[in-house]
């Protein structure tokens, strides 16, 4: 992997207006994604990871901030959040998404064939049907869907196969960057392993850059090169995957890691049980958002929000007490 | 285990769903035992028959299309399948209680939570409304919800809190057997950790036996003593937790363990079990797992393997492994 900055996210914010005030779904997030890497995005429900994923490819318009995507043929960047509709349509071929729920993201009235053909037709990729036929066959082969299934409808297929259709659809236009929004959380472990392997093989073959969104830490660890941990709309820690599991710096990451139930019987470990629930993201106070549940919180944490800072090379953390808490 | 310590003894239970499209063999000749005070983890993938087994014990199989075709469910020496509906209503809730998977849908949205708990208490105990409500408040405190919130409606609680309410309802009448169907699947990891901690605590406090249905081997490792692995309607392996986790015997159990990504190990490709769960309307002859099994032999396609004791009560149903162990 080279260290080329492929996507640069600067101060990205996404607020939703609700009756009770502004909901800060993504609140001032900045990070970079390197070409060909997989960036894992973990956090609990409602932390804004899916919203962030959608803002990255502009399925949602962000409130403010920039998402810079490197051009294909030169070293300049284009700001996805500012381009007009026509330009965005062209960019869509380069950035794709695979959705979480293979049961609801496919039109039940289209056959497998039609579902995979849809992106090709919408973007006028082929003007003769023989080429398109060849491409669809190729895509079905790539994601491991048997040819006999081409006339089946989604309801006839199991979750794993449906997710393969979703993947084939996102690959159809030869993208460079794919947001994988919980692609395996609706699947059983055996099928999950099959899909994870498929995504891995595809990345090796086509050099895709992935953002992998999941709440399952062991899955994220398996697929990611670097991992960003989100809490209530903000990235609280970002570093190499091994580093994150070996020496987590943020107290939230520490609690999250200790909460994973391990399928092992002879390991004893200290479990940090967090009190209470995630607070409301509506009009959050200007303080560290984790302070209310943090066992290390001090007055400084309650007085102002810490920024995401590079603690050691490549290891970013947003915590005033990061250095002191190392084990 | 001596007979009098046995609380639940399921013998040859067979449950079919007779649909227009064909007969679904949901549970096939299932045998399972549970001692007093024990907690058993029932593990398997979607469609393995875990929930059907639990509903069978509660006699809650929707009929039609579901039918208990044969077998016995001996609970405290009496066969539940011989009970009348009237007698069953006395047992449900008072002797055997169930926690359902989805806390979002198993509570009544237009009833305050204390009334929902009191409803259960009044049904089984001869107490007045005000007494029942007072007991309901006690139950809420027991599961870690403040008494002040007793008059709140389910939508005012978060997912983890709702699951606590469901647990309070289940435990309100001090049942002898608690069946928990995926109690933490819908919850986030840190909330799951809280609920698991609570269940562990209550297990010792109430000394109830428990059947925990899950697909997560990590959750089982947290709170169960015994584990039964289900595949295609049958128990394929049954053992003490330690024995099963350290020396899994059945090739399916092995595959299941290997397909979960580890949090302390790097693997490039996850070992997968090839293929899919068989269609429960059309189960393969012989061992249902043989088409996906790496070590299958000719006999596996012919004969249904018997449960063999591999030592110290560690049982598995596999022709090949039995032969290798000289059984």
Describe, in plain words, how this protein is organized in 3D:
- With 327 residues, chain A is α/β, with parallel strands linked by helices.
- Chain A has ten helices and twelve strands.
- Chain A has a domain at 5-94 and 175-248: Rossmann fold.
- In chain A, the strands form two sheets. In chain A, strands 6-7-8-3-9-10-12-11 form an eight-stranded mixed β-sheet, sandwiched between helices. Chain A has a four-stranded antiparallel β-sheet with strand order 2-1-4-5.
- The longest helix of chain A is centred in the middle third of the chain and has 18 residues, at 189-206.
- By secondary structure, chain B is α/β, with parallel strands linked by helices.
- Helices cover 30% and strands 24% of the residues of chain B.
- In chain B, the strands form two sheets. An eight-stranded mixed β-sheet of chain B has the order 6-7-8-3-9-10-12-11, sandwiched between helices.
- In chain B, helix 3 (113-124) packs across helix 4 (129-142) and helix 3 runs parallel beside helix 5.
- The chains are: A alpha/beta (327), B alpha/beta (327).
- Chain A binds chain B through residues 44-45, 158-160, 188-194, 196-197, 200, 215, 217-219, 221-222, 242, 245, 255-266, 271, 273-274, 277, and chain B through 45-46, 158-161, 188-194, 196-197, 215-222, 241-242, 245-246, 255-257, 259-264, 266-273, 276.
Our count of helices of chain A gives 10
E-strand count of chain B: 12
Strand tally of chain A is 12
Strand order of the largest sheet of chain B: 6-7-8-3-9-10-12-11
Q: Which superfamily, in CATH terms, is the homologous superfamily of the domain at 5-94 and 175-248 in chain A?
A: P-loop containing nucleotide triphosphate hydrolases
Q: What is the mean pLDDT of chain A?
A: 90
Q: Report the average pLDDT across residues of chain B.
A: 89
Element string of chain A (H = helix, E = strand) = EEEHEEHEHHHEHEHEEHHHEE
**What's the CATH class of the domain at 5-94 and 175-248 in chain A, please?**
Alpha Beta
- Determine the CATH topology of the domain at 5-94 and 175-248 in chain A: Rossmann fold
